[in-house]
Amino acid sequence: MARVLLDLNFPPSLHGELCEAVGLELEEAETGPFSMPLSAARRQRDRRMREMVLTAYEYQCAFCGYDGRIGAVPVGLEAAHVRWWAFDGPDDVENGLCLCSLHHKLFDKGVLGLGEGPAGGHRILVSQSFVGHSTAAREGVLVLAGRPLIGPQPGVRPIATAHRSWHTSQVFHGTPRPAASA
Ligand SMILES: [Zn+2]
């Protein structure tokens, strides 16, 4: 039951901490990508989505440009849904972003968002609710405010306005910070 509620209402990046918050222990096998039969169709779709999105963004985080790998295998890079799958977000490149693990989490938490950028592109929003004084918080997050998105590569459809608007109204926290000064 818990698994069904998680799948129907939240993106996978938030499942772990939600379980912790309510003192629920899901077995490792249940929280991993190969959980229960119910999600078989979804796993199939997710795999294609990941490949499409990572290729569209050339295996770089669209926010910071992170592109780590072990050998030939990307590590710490994920395909994020802009409009959550649990809220009818399609597994489509127009609804996807290639993000590093940190920025994926912050995007799903509403710390980071997407705004209209120059020439029909997108720029990065950072919520004023987010606070961090460390160099890591500054350089990893605050400095992104107002920066243009990295990618997608030419010829790939950018994020659809409807999905971006959904994220801004349903997930993003309050007011965006003004662009960080270069
Ligand atoms: Zn990143």
Shape: globular
Structural class: alpha+beta
What is the string of SSEs from the N terminus onward?
A: HHHHEEEEHEEHH
What share of residues are in beta strands? 5-15%
**Can you summarize the main beta sheet?**
2 strands, antiparallel
Q: How far apart are the first and last residues' alpha carbons, in Å?
A: 49 Å
Round the Cα radius of gyration to an integer and report it: 16 Å
Describe what this molecule looks like in 3D.
InterPro entries: HNH_nuc, PT_DNA_restrict. Pfam families: HNH_2. It comes from Streptomyces ziwulingensis. This is HNH nuclease domain-containing protein. The chain has 182 residues and is α+β, with helices and mostly antiparallel strands. It has one domain (2-170). The chain contains 7 helices and 6 strands. Strands 1-2 form a two-stranded antiparallel sheet. A two-stranded antiparallel sheet has the order 3-4. The chain starts with a helix and ends in a 12-residue tail after the last helix. The model is unreliable at 28-33 (pLDDT under 50). The protein binds zinc ion (ZN). Zinc ion is lined by residues 61, 63-64, 66, 99-100, 103. Zinc ion (ZN) binds at residues 61, 63-64, 66, 99-100, 103.
